[in-house]
Amino acid sequence: MSDLPPINFTRGVPAVESFPADKIIDASQAVLREHASIILQYGSAYGLRLLREWLASWHSVAVESVLCSNGSLNLIEFICSLLLHSENKTVFVEAPTYDRAVTRLYKHGAEIVSIPLQDDGPDIEILDAKLQQHQPSFFYTIPDFQNPAGTTCSHEKRIRLIELARQHGYIYLEDSPYRPLRYWGVEQPSLFEIAPDVVVQMSSFSKLIGPGTRMGYILGDVDLLAKVAKVAEDTYITPSLLSHGIVYEFCRAGHLQPQIDRLKTLYRPRLEAALASLDEHLPQAKFVRPDGGFFLSITLPRGVTTMDVRAHASRVNLNLADGRAFFVNGGGERFLRLPYCALTPEQIRVGISRLAEIVRRLQ
């Protein structure tokens, strides 16, 4: 076993130094003093009304179009329960895509069709061809700083995606937890902002405040959310109103935007360090240059596989996720995801240097 310090390019977790602990303590005390009788009691399956009202204002939607849960994976579960019935279990996903979402889909017996991801979003030609063969119930997509690839869908493709949904009669489940974390470049409108009639958008505060908040939310059609709320009620009666209350008070007190600004200041140099190190040490590989978020991805040079790289990486205390896990219908043999936010710039430089040395040995 190597005595080198470990470098973990595995899970996409926030940096612990990013957690606004003091402000969360203040928010917890304030909301309990003011609203204990509400947040410690059973409540609506839609979540805490105060938080829903704040989110409705933030996103410029009606409060009836907002539902809050215990994290966004809950919401994927609920959508699957509603939409994946015996008549149509087909779901489109990007290739690669978020592996935990795929786990939820498989749990519900989904027939998953993968649409290859390009640097500017899903391959529209292949999507169009697949739509001639399949009728999806919905298309699960991460348009902004995609997990695991790091790509962002172009405006042109967003418009075309909406056109295809209206033409073929399906909806998008737009997953947007990274959207506020843009470090440079021009922000694109979300799919939901473009077409709320064919898009359901979900997000969470896990990447903005901390995963321990367990607070996810969804924006969508009022009638659809009423059905989601019924599934939620049958699942847990009510979500954690205590968590919702803490997040509400944190946001009400005006802490969210300064926290987002602080995260950008913290994470941008880490992405810059990753890109500079790849340019220096791995120019022979293809890699995505994200504009924000938590991830970038690498396609290893021909003849070098993720499996071989991981086998050698363990000997130098470099921990890498299996790239094949992000592909449903095969693929990923040369794919690597590099989460950079939880590592310091120096750790990133050291980790990529170790990775580059392994690739050179395998070529």
Q: Can you tell me about this structure?
A:
By secondary structure, the chain is an alpha/beta fold. The chain has two domains: 7-18 and 257-362, Aspartate Aminotransferase, domain 1 (Alpha-Beta Complex); 21-252, 3-Layer(aba) Sandwich (Aspartate Aminotransferase, domain 2), CATH 3.40.640. Helices cover 43% and strands 16% of the residues. An eight-stranded mixed beta sheet has the order 2-9-8-7-6-3-4-5, sandwiched between helices. Helix 1 packs across helix 9, helix 10 (256-281) runs parallel beside helix 12 and helix 11 (306-313) packs across helix 12. The radius of gyration is 21 Å and the shape is globular.
Gyration radius, in Å: 21 Å
Rounded mean pLDDT score: 97
CATH fold call of the largest domain: Aspartate Aminotransferase, domain 2
Task: Figure out the total of helices.
Answer: 12
Tally of distinct domains: 2
List keywords for this structure.
single chain, 363 residues, alpha/beta, Aspartate Aminotransferase, domain 1, Aspartate Aminotransferase, domain 2, 8-stranded mixed beta sheet
Offer a quick outline of the entry.
With 363 residues, the chain is an alpha/beta fold. It has helices at 21-39, 49-59, 72-83, 99-107, 124-131, 155-168, 191-194, 222-236, 241-252, 256-281, 306-313, 345-362, and strands at 7-9, 66-69, 90-95, 111-118, 121-122, 138-141, 171-175, 199-204, 216-219, 286-287, 295-299, 318-320, 335-339. It is built from 12 helices and 13 strands.
